Amino acid sequence: MNMRLRSHVDGYQKVAPPRYESNDAQKTKASIFTQNVMIVVLPGFPLTELAACLDIFASANNFLQGLAYNPTVTSEQGGSICSVSNLAVETKCAGAFDGIADYLVCVGCQPTEINRQAIRRIVVSKRRFARSIFALSTVVDMLTDLNVLDQTEVSAQWQYKSQATEFATKTNQKTKTNQKLFHNSKGIVTCAGFLATFDVLLHSIANDHGWSFAGRISDHLIKDGLRYENSPQRRPLEQRTGTKHKGLIAAVSVIEENLASPVPLSEVARIAGYSVRQLERQFQRHYGISPGRYYMSRRVTRAKAQIEQTTMSIIEVSMANGFGTPSHFARYFSRHFGISPHVLRNTCLVKAPPS
Fold this sequence. Notes:
It is built from 15 helices and eleven strands. Helix content is 47%, strand content 15%. The protein has helices at 23-30, 47-64, 113-126, 138-145, 161-170, 196-209, 211-220, 237-241, 246-257, 265-272, 276-287, 291-309, 314-320, 326-337, 341-350, and strands at 4-6, 35-40, 69-75, 79-82, 88-93, 101-106, 130-136, 153-155, 176-178, 182-185, 188-191. The protein is of the alpha/beta class. The radius of gyration is 22 Å and the shape is globular. Strands 1, 2, 3, 4, 5, 6, 7, 10 and 11 form a nine-stranded mixed beta sheet that branches. Helix 5 (161-170) links the parallel strand 8 and strand 9 (176-178). Helix 2 packs parallel to helix 6 (196-209), helix 2 (47-64) crosses helix 7 (211-220) and helix 4 (138-145) packs parallel to helix 5 (161-170).
């Protein structure tokens, strides 16, 4: 599907929320001023993040009955940009964006080398004119790799946390990564992206117009409250593992936290309070496979995501998931997925959305 969506800076009157004014709204309306929002999209961007930006700012404008937020969707060259879902959006050239961007929002994108350099050029050229910079999902990892953010701590999406840490180590940065929804440091906000985009932007609107106002926008969007900065990105481990068995949860937790540096199963069993034989029985009972095969499955599954969604080389992916040599990695990967890592990477490059 290749629909073309056009961004309308002044087209927010189409679906107006109910018009009612609390004391907060009356105070805000009296002192309303327009803030410019520059939204940057690049090929392979997730529609969820762009929609969150546009819908939240549109709702705020409708509630305030004025243009409090003036969003412009841009890309490096302008024109039609294709999302990861293959829907195209019309953009303006980022270089033509004049003046101060109160919000510079960099939406996640496919982490190709072309996109990495494009987002670097845009952020470097616009950062001194921006009051707040928001880096979402994959952009966090790309800007960390390029040493653009210059932050001591960033919120990296859980799937890419180890990658952002590796980038920081490789470039001798003292950057810690966390798995919070978002992290704000000196006007630079890093965010896990996707649905967390709603939360981080609602928090920013709360800073501008109050928590009650942000809460009404959340209600209008049928969103179940505002999650806080320190909220976890993932469901509790007992929900993800499908069990409430404390020993098994402890074992899975050790495995999840040590995908890059696998620990012996005897150590996993000890931490979980089992013997190795008991650990094997628990995994067979709940997952139908041995703990060793479960461990390997988690490592190659994360490796597959990194091949498909990052610019890490096959060697880097291999090392990041605890494989001693690329050939060892390729053998297990091919056995698990029926395709070699290099063939998968080439397939992803062929399927990259056009700019």
